[in-house]
Amino acid sequence: MQLYSYFRSSASYRVRIALALKGLDYEYLPVQIVKNEQFAAPFDSIAPGHLVPVLKDGDDVLNQSLAIIEYLDETHPTPSLLPGDARSRSQIRALALDIACEIHPLNNLRVLRYLVNELKVSEDDKNRWYRHWVETGLEAVERQIVRNGAGGRYCHGDTPTLADCVLVPQIFNAQRLECRTEHMPTVMRVFDACMRLDAFSKTQPSGCPDAT
Amino acid sequence: MQLYSYFRSSASYRVRIALALKGLDYEYLPVQIVKNEQFAAPFDSIAPGHLVPVLKDGDDVLNQSLAIIEYLDETHPTPSLLPGDARSRSQIRALALDIACEIHPLNNLRVLRYLVNELKVSEDDKNRWYRHWVETGLEAVERQIVRNGAGGRYCHGDTPTLADCVLVPQIFNAQRLECRTEHMPTVMRVFDACMRLDAFSKTQPSGCPDAT
After folding, report:
1. Best exposed site among A77, A93, A110, A130 by fewest CB in 10 Å?
2. For A133, which residue in chain B has the nearest alpha carbon?
3. Cβ neighbours of residue B184 under 8 Å, at least 6 residues apart?
4. In this complex, do A97 and B128 lie within 8 Å of one another by their Cβ atoms?
5. Per-residue pLDDT for B29 more than 90?
6. Predicted ipTM beyond 0.90
7. Could you give the residue ranges of the DSSP H alpha helices within B61-161?
8. Chain B residue numbers touching A74 (CB-CB < 8 A)
9. Would you write out chain A's pLDDT as a tens digit for each of its 212 residues?
10. Nearest chain A alpha carbon to B127
C-alpha cells in the first residue's frame, strides 16, 4: 500500500494511526500542502478533491480519511476499530464525526487562507475563530463520551477505535494553537492513554519523513 | 423510532431520506434551530453536541447523520445503502464525506452567525463564502463521481446509496442560496434521478411538519 500524506495534516495522521494499529506496512508519499503540491501532477489526477490523505491499495485509490479507515477495518478486521454491536459502532462513528465534521473542516489550512486572503480577517480574529471551534467542539466531545457511558481507557471502551484515531490528531492541533484543554478531563485522559501506544506516538507529525 | 429534526437542516434531511428508503416509520419531533431550541431542555440533555438530527431507537440515542445512517444500514440491511465490496463501500462513504466534511460544516447556521456576529463579515462576503465552498466542493464531487467510474443512475451505481442521501440535501442548500450548478452535469443528473423517487421528494424540507 502507498499513503499520500502530509506530516501536519491531521486527516493524514488519522490514517497513519489506523495503519499502525492494524500492523500494516506502507510506502509514505509526501504531498507538501504548504507548497500547493495537491493541485499539481501527479497528485491532482488521483485526488480530484485535492486533499490528503489518499491510500492506494493495488488498483484501488481511496480518499477521505474516515472512509479509508472503514476500508482498512473491512479488509483487515483485526484488531477491530469499530467493535461491538450496531449501537456501539454508531456511537464510535459519531464521536469521529463530531470532530471530523464539526471541528476540523473549520480549521483547515485552505479555510484559514480564505478567511485572511478573501475576507480580510485579522490574524487575531483568525486565531480566535480557530480556538472557538476547537474548544466548543471538544467540549461537546467531552460531554458525549461521558453521556455514552461506555467507560474504559479510550474514547469507547478498553481498546482504541476509530474515534481515538480522530481525537488524537485534533488534540495535536489544539495544542499547537494553544487552545484550552485543561477543562476536558475525559478527553485528555484518553489522549494520554493513546499516546502511550506506539501506533499513536510513532506516527505523530514530528516523526514523519517529511517533517520540517 | 423517533427523529429529532429541523425541516431546513440538511443533516436531518439525509436521515429522513435513509429512513424512507428503508421503509421505516418514525415519529417526527421538531427542534427549531432558528429559535435555539437545541440548547434548551429536553433536547440539550439528549444531544450534548446541540445538533440535529438525533434518532431514538428504543433506549438507543444516536447522533451524527452519517453514523445514524450506518446504524440503520446495519440494523435494517435491505435495501443496502452501502452496496458492493470494500472498495465500493469506501468510495460511497468518501463521496458522502466529501460533502459532509468539506462543504456542509462551513455553511452551517452557527458558522454563518459567527462570521457575521463575531468577525463582522458583511452580508455580501458571507454569501460569497457560502457559494465558494458549495461550488468548489460540488465541483470536486463531480470530478470524483466521474473518476470512480461506477456509472449508473445515482452517485455510485443503479441504486440510491448513502452518497445520494447526502448529495440531495446539499443541492437543496445550493439552490436556496443561488449557487452555480449548471456546470456539474453528473451531479445534477443524479439529483434529478433521486428527486423522481418518493424517498427523496416526500421528505424534502417543504414537506416536513415544521416547515414554515
Report:
1. A77
2. B111
3. B138, B139, B141, B142
4. no
5. yes
6. yes
7. 65-75, 86-100, 109-117, 123-148
8. 86, 89-90
9. 999 999 999 999 999 999 999 999 999 999 988 888 888 888 888 888 889 999 999 999 999 999 999 999 999 999 999 999 999 999 999 999 999 999 999 999 899 999 999 999 999 999 999 999 999 999 999 999 999 988 899 999 999 999 999 999 999 999 999 999 999 999 999 999 999 999 999 999 999 999 98
10. A119
Contact B89 A102 (CB under 8 A): no
Q: B135-164: per-residue pLDDT in tens?
A: 999 999 999 999 998 889 999 999 999 999
Question: What are φ and ψ of residue B134, in 5° steps?
Answer: -65, -50
Beta carbons of B125 and A119 less than 8 angstroms apart: yes
Domains within chain A, CATH numbers bracketed: 2-79 (3.40.30.10), 86-199 (1.20.1050.10)
Q: What is the mean pLDDT of chain A?
A: 95
User: Could you give the C-alpha distances from A120 to A35, A108, A114, A126, A129, in angstroms and in order?
Assistant: 22, 17, 8, 10, 13
Q: Which amino acid is at B11?
A: A
Sign, Cα dihedral of A50, A55, A56, A59? negative
Do A104 and A10 meet the contact criterion of CB atoms below 8 Å apart? yes
Looking at beta carbons, which residues of chain A come within 8 Å of B83? Answer: none
Compute φ and ψ for A126, nearest 5 degrees.
Answer: -60, -45
Q: What are phi and psi of A99, to 5 degrees?
A: -95, -50
Per residue in A78-92, pLDDT tens?
Answer: 999 999 999 999 999
Q: Kindly state whether B140 is in contact with chain A, defined as any CB-CB distance less than 8 angstroms.
A: yes
B70 interfacial to chain A (CB closer than 8 Å): yes
